[in-house]
Amino acid sequence: MEIGTMISLALYFAAMLAIGLYAYRKSTDDVSGYMLGGRNLPPSVAALSAGASDMSGWILMGLPGAMFLTGFSSTWIAVGLVIGAFLNYLLVAPRLRVYTEVANDAITIPDYFANRFEDNSNALRIVSAIVIIVFFTLYTSSGVVAGGKLFENSFGMSYETGLYVTTGVVVLYTLFGGFLAVSLTDFVQGCIMFIALVLVPLVTFSLLEQPLSATLNELNPEMLTWVGAGGVIGIISAMSWGLGYFGQPHIIVRFMSVRSVKDMPTARNIGMSWMVVATIGAITTGLFGAAYAHENNIVVKDAETIFLVLSELLFHPLIAGFLLAAILAAIMSTISSQLLVSSSSLTEDFYKVFIKPNATDKELVLVGRISVAAVSVLAIYLAHDRESTILSLVSNAWAGFGAAFGPLVLFSLFWKRMNFSGALAGMVVGATTVLVWIYAPFTIAGQSPSGFIYEIVPGFIAASIAIVVVSLMTSPPSTTIEEKFEEMHRGL
Known about the structure:
Layout: H1 3-27, H2 31-36, H3 43-55, H4 62-70, H5 75-102, H6 109-116, H7 123-154, H8 159-206, H9 212-219, H10 231-239, H11 249-257, H12 264-295, H13 306-314, H14 317-355, H15 361-383, H16 390-414, H17 420-439, H18 449-452, H19 456-473, H20 479-490
């Protein structure tokens, strides 16, 4: 590896660890500070933290890789995500910020569900915590896979060493600095990703020898079509990624941490501006990268590494090191957020509820740190299966959360007739439908169910129907819930 690249990466690692140390000294004395930053994040930090933790390695590796292989038809994923993110800011963000505080100051999503529906049995808390831990372990492993590929392709290290280095640094600053460390590092990482996703496609485009359309037509004429092999159903599947936003715990927890609901419009403007530029950068990186590789007879063995290839070929080692740091930033921002949300569930929704209800804040913070380490070990174990693509791992976990939590979050914020039974039914039906759709032994039109249409679509629809039907068939919620609902809307 070039000395300039090593210097850039060393500075990046040092900065992340320094932020973790700063956060450790600032906000980890109590469980609210460790898990939610004391609900005091500025809108800029919350917005870029949500964006960076959302995008992960797929924005610099997964999406460019899909564009590199299939061309314009993969753009619909980005279109659906942008629409979904905007609606999430518009519909969920302000209400969730107010209602989680009204609902006994809930600091985790399972905690919110339990308080919102007066769940004395803890059934909602248990099921939602299990969903979080199962799908987040899978989701976290996708980031670890991206780290392994990065170190293997760019630094000449083994894939396994890459897993350990990536996870090790993330665990250190997350374990000690908690939510504030995760949010502040996400802010810095979001800025790095933004610059990288503007710089790489611009430089690549400037080096193309002929019009993009002509080169792509030579490479594969189908890359120029907006409708891929899946036809209209394929477009629906791609755009349905946007439905997942309403149920992603690591994203919507950022809304809970903003210092005031009045800051939400500012956070939305910052977050959406960042996202639009980032997704356009990812799309064009894949397209321009495919054209550049074709013109220069460059063999790209793994499409998901096209950003790495361009960074190393086109830039000075110091800048290349910065660009590689951008990939690490994308990977680490999401891993850290997912580790913290998983840790929060294990601590608040299992340990505090079932093992030691009277645990002190100091003890809960310690358990949270141990949980961070435990989840990371399991994620590394799963990531040893290097055959899994980053996008496939992310898509499964994204669908699981979107179907299990998305309808539940939306209905809980807008429909006061929804009750405990409807919430539980919706969560179970949504998660189960996604798992059946992924692993079912039957086919639809000669394809696996998930190959026919993205599993979030049937999962989201089935969960929504279950919520409405079961809620209407069972007793209405108590007047206390209705009073809290009115209080929530007065606070908006």
